Amino acid sequence: MSMADNSSLLHVGQVSERNVNNASARVAMDDFDGLVSGEMQVLFPAIGGWQIFFTPKEGDHVLMSRLPNGPAEGHVLGKVFTASRMPQGGAPDIILLVSDDGKNVVRFDAANGTMDMICDQGCSLKAKNLDIEVKETANIKTRDLTVEAENNVTIEAAADVRVKAGTSAVVDAPQVSITGGMLTVDGAAAPSGSGPFCALPTCLFTGAPHVGNMVSGT
């Protein structure tokens, strides 16, 4: 079959070769018995000042548009779904970014105003300035958490702040200041022997227990 036997300028086929350096691909066209096209530039969607870059890989089913002057000129318009690879999360008002193995997903739900991000291995977020505002509740659940800052770390709360550790909590600083109306320790204060009269369990004058530099109890 020759190219002149088919007047259609739109073809479906499989990518036989891709070039990620210039975002182009060769396509084996189904309606031309697998005739391979020349390198076709891949078209990218552009939204405002943002562009989405992708180059279909070998074996992907794509829709291509050729120009009338032959199979060497044209564009790859995008991937098409097949019976073995159907859209995921079929629902209205959904935008999905899904890896081929389905383990990495970014899901935007315009109807409910939600966004879900699932990374099977790791995610990296880098910003010059970052503001995170949560109107109701924020939960962070992880195995290990490290927060590093070159300068100051400030935690402000309009109500209570609670720090709970399963084994131990350590505050390591050259100087520690605690400002508050009252400091309450839920436990027995045992003398350590390091302060004046600290070897004595109670004050000789008031009968109050002495407090050393260690607090034991639950």
Kindly describe this structure.
The N and C termini lie far apart (86 Å). Among the domains are: 3-79, OB fold (Dihydrolipoamide Acetyltransferase, E2P); 89-121, no CATH class. A hairpin with a 5-residue loop joins strand 2 and strand 3. It has a five-stranded mixed beta barrel. Strands 9-10-11 form a three-stranded antiparallel sheet, with no helix packed on it. It has strands spanning 10-19, 24-29, 35-36, 40-42, 46-47, 50-51, 61-66, 74-79, 94-98, 105-109, 114-118. The mean pLDDT is 79. It is mainly β and 218 residues long.
**What general form does the structure show?**
rod-shaped
> Average pLDDT, to the nearest integer?
79
Number of helices: 0
CATH topology of the domain at 3-79: OB fold (Dihydrolipoamide Acetyltransferase, E2P)
CATH H-level homologous superfamily name of the domain at 3-79: Gp5 N-terminal domain
Class per helix and strand makeup: mainly beta
Order of helices and strands: EEEEEEEEEEE
Number of strands: 11
The percent range for strand residues is 15-25%
What is the straight-line distance between the termini? 86 Å
- Helical fraction equals under 10%
Reported for the largest beta sheet, the result is:
5 strands, mixed, barrel
Strand order of the largest sheet: 1-2-4-8-7
Rg, please?
A: 33 Å
CATH class of the domain at 3-79: Mainly Beta
Q: Using the 3D structure, state the CATH architecture of the domain at 3-79.
A: Beta Barrel
Point out poorly predicted stretches: none
Key terms for this structure?
218 residues, mainly beta, OB fold (Dihydrolipoamide Acetyltransferase, E2P), five-stranded mixed barrel, three-stranded antiparallel beta sheet, 24% strand
